[in-house]
From TrEMBL:
It is found in: Nucleus. GO terms for cellular component: chromatin; nucleus. One of its GO terms (biological process) is regulation of DNA-templated transcription. This is Zinc finger protein 26-like. Residues 31-58, 59-86, 87-114, 115-142, 143-170, 171-198, 199-226, 227-255, 256-283, 284-311, 314-341, 344-371, 372-399, 400-427, 428-455, 456-483, 484-509 form the C2H2-type domain. It comes from Frankliniella occidentalis. The keyword Transit peptide does not apply.
Length: 509
């Protein structure tokens, strides 16, 4: 009888495969899910699908008690314990536990992307990636979390999300025992031990640890920005950049909250950086100068001050200047064409801005919002870039050096302006008179002599100034602040000029 049972099972499996194959010709799918109305070629496929609704997982792993909804998932999982990887890549000798994984991997060598979207030009190496892409057009999110009602495009994303509630991290690194909630994160982490970078760019040969990082990098060459904002015309190359844009510009959503001070952030990465202010932890150390940083991003940016390395694949055809992003090249080209492409207008003063980041920074002049705080002196700033520049007043860091006279600067813009003192170049010309200058900021200040504009107003006496450098010394007449100290007699002054005059009169012979 058992033999007949085995024969019966094999016959049923063969019939199932035949029915699936025939449906590719006929398109017939007679078996419908009574929960979501999705249709299937065979009853067996419908039964398997129903488990996504019921949560049933009848296949148990005998080694770790993990459960699966389908037999092939269990068979694939068992190879994690046994280490069996019978499928080898003929190009790079990398081995895989399943034939399907090998086929997908081989496309990283051939560049083959057989799955094309019928709505846009997107192509993919896997059918699963294409299915997920289709959902960006339909907006469909069929998988809902029963704990917080959040919805997802795939059951895998739902399972991963559920671990944020349970705290489960089932994937453990055998080298350092670090645990992860997703297998893909474990695989990526393992490459920090091996140094392996299997994903190579076909344009510039740069290699990456993850396929996702390669895909993101490839867009620096193609200029592709597939993620479009539903509120405005902005497009982004990365999904996370679009999420941040929508949260910053179009919503007040700040879902990531600090448990120590209750401050909220639009992105988890920002929260992690903020939390380092409470812990004072600086885990990322520079191997060249022993300087420490609170984030890997901060360390990478710092390393460039040693190596000068910065990928700039976009080159201006008019002046050969290079840029990291295609968007920065497009903005730069307006210097040559004189074109002004204003997309954002301030509702308070009607000032127009070319980029969302410039617009956000400008609006903070009116709101007074200064979300970026210096961890050394607690001074606050309206822009993160301004905070980074300010931090150099504490560290003394001057990473930008003139190749002519070796003078160093804390800002790249100061170096560029300084270099024009050697070349005599004056790129910026006033349209009202013959005035020319080497810096755009100097031209902006000069233009105010024609317009009479004084945008910087004292909040105490409402006196107005053409420049912030004019307003700041004036404010000291109200506050009594004297930040400039004589190095000889410790006398203090409100202005640097006053201190210099004092030094000449009193301390020089």
């Amino acid at each position: 009888m058992p033999v007949q049972s085995d024969v019966g099972r094999k016959k049923a499996a063969a019939n199932e495969k035949l029915a699936i194959h025939l449906s590719t010709h006929t398109g017939q799918k007679p078996f419908e899910c009574n929960v979501c109305n999705k249709k299937f070629a065979t009853n067996g496929m419908r039964e398997v699908h129903l488990r996504t609704h019921t949560g049933e997982k009848p296949f148990d792993c005998k080694m770790c008690d993990k459960k699966f909804s389908q037999r092939y998932q269990l068979q694939r999982h068992v190879r994690i314990h046994t280490g069996v990887k019978p499928n080898e890549c003929t190009v790079c000798s990398k081995r895989f536990s399943t034939k399907g994984s090998l086929v997908i991997h081989s496309r990283t060598h051939t560049g083959e992307k057989p799955y094309g979207c019928n709505v846009c030009d997107f192509r993919s190496a896997t059918s699963g990636t294409l299915k997920r892409h289709h959902l960006t057009h339909t907006g469909e999110k069929p998988f809902e979390c029963t704990l917080c009602d959040k919805k997802f495009t795939t059951s895998q994303n739902l399972c991963t999300h559920l671990r944020t509630h349970t705290g489960e991290k089932p994937y453990e690194c055998s080298l350092c025992n670090r645990k992860f909630s997703e297998s893909v994160k474990l695989r990526g982490h393992l490459r920090t031990h091996t140094g392996e970078k299997p994903f190579q760019c076909g344009v510039c040969s740069k290699s990456f640890k993850r396929g996702e990082h390669l895909r993101n990098h490839e867009r620096t060459h193609t200029g592709e920005r597939p993620y479009e904002c539903t509120f405005c015309e902005k497009k982004c190359a990365l999904a996370r950049n679009m999420r941040v844009h929508i949260r910053r510009m179009h919503t007040t959503d700040r879902p990531f909250e600090c448990t120590l001070c209750n401050k909220k952030f639009p992105e988890r990465a920002e929260l992690r950086v903020h939390q380092l202010k409470h812990t004072s932890e600086r885990a990322f150390e520079c191997t060249l100068c022993d300087k420490k940083f609170g984030s890997a991003q901060g360390l990478r940016a710092h390393l460039r001050t040693h190596t000068g390395e910065r990928e700039k694949p976009f080159q201006c055809a008019l002046c050969d200047k290079k840029f990291e992003k295609s968007s920065k090249l497009r903005t730069h080209l307006r210097v040559h064409t004189g074109e002004k492409h204003y997309k954002y207008e301030c509702s308070v003063c009607n000032k127009k801005c070319e980029t969302s980041s410039t617009f956000i920074a400008h609006t903070r002049i009116h709101t007074g919002e200064k979300p970026f705080e210096c961890g050394v002196c607690q001074k606050r700033f309206g822009a993160n870039a301004t905070l980074k520049i300010h931090l150099r007043t504490h560290t003394g860091e001057k990473p930008f050096e003139c190749v002519v006279c070796n003078k160093k600067f804390s800002q790249s813009s100061h170096l560029r302006t300084h270099q024009r003192s050697h070349t005599g170049e004056k790129l910026f010309e006033c349209t009202e008179c013959d005035y020319k200058c080497s810096a755009p900021g100097s031209l902006a200040v000069h233009l105010r002599t024609h317009t009479g504009e004084k945008p910087f107003e004292c909040t105490v006496c409402t006196k107005k100034f053409r420049t912030s450098s004019g307003l700041n010394p004036h404010l000291r007449t109200h506050t009594g602040e004297k930040p400039f100290k004589c190095s000889v007699c410790d006398k203090r002054f409100a202005h640097s000029l006053g201190m210099k005059q004092h030094s000449i009169r009193v301390h020089t012979e």
